Amino acid sequence: MLALTELTGWNVAYIRIGIEAFVLLAGWLLGGPVSFGTFLFCVTIGSMPAWRCRNAKRSQAACLDRPPALGRKG
Fold it and tell me: Mind telling me which residue stretches traverse the membrane in this protein (predicted)?
């Protein structure tokens, strides 16, 4: 996933949704059941890593910019 992001320059969410859609199609071609819930899962789980990466970067920046905590006295 991350290698494809580096190669193409596309957003992680688009790459992940593409991978999930490919797996969904392969499962359907092999005879697996596909319904609205399966498609919804494919789209939502594909966008979660991108959302999580943005939040992790923001949290990391906030933690690294914060001055070190001082020990309690007394």
Answer: 12-30, 36-53
